[in-house]
Amino acid sequence: MPRGRYSLHDPHDHTPLAEERFHCAPGPSGWRYVSQLTTPSGTASTTPGGAPRAGTAAGSVDLALDDRGRPIRLELHASGWQVRAAALDGVTWVRTDPTGDHATEGNVRAHAFTGSSPGFLIATARLLRLTPDASATRVRLVAFTDPVLAPRTLDQSWALLTREAHATDNGPLAVEEYQVTALDTGEQHTVHISGDVVLSAPGIELEDLESPPSVFT
């Protein structure tokens, strides 16, 4: 069960946005990713006694996939907003405002969900299950955008460029390099994934990993 910490920042000006502490694991029926987000702690990184200064709670992610990579359950929290969602007649969600008085439902003919969490990159890779010799695959996603989890439908193209084994102290580490293209703008970026851990992606840095990534069969 990999556990670790990502730092999230603006991919353009590198402004720190949040830290995301996560754990994830495959199971007999799929894969689950759970994380807690905190805001940057400010200019001081430690308390007067030298201990790390904690940031403010900023939200959470709880995502479960079935054995085919489809989202069977998603729960997001951010800025008092909440989203509960799943793959149903495409994808379906309920978004609730901070007061809890109003909830809006949505449904789109899409394949899955995405957002700022690195867990969504793993989920999309698991859904597509690409091979290096395959052509790019188009996927339609519903993105829940920060800070109020507003839904937006977008189309991407994913291609697996390479799959290589890198030597480590704990044995070979399989790393996959994906090229992701936003089909509305043509903007491209690269994502490096090992098992169920994002090693690097725009706006995402893996800061700490307590155990090796899971190996998917």
TrEMBL record:
Region spans: Disordered: 38-57
Name of the protein in its database record: Glycolipid-binding domain-containing protein
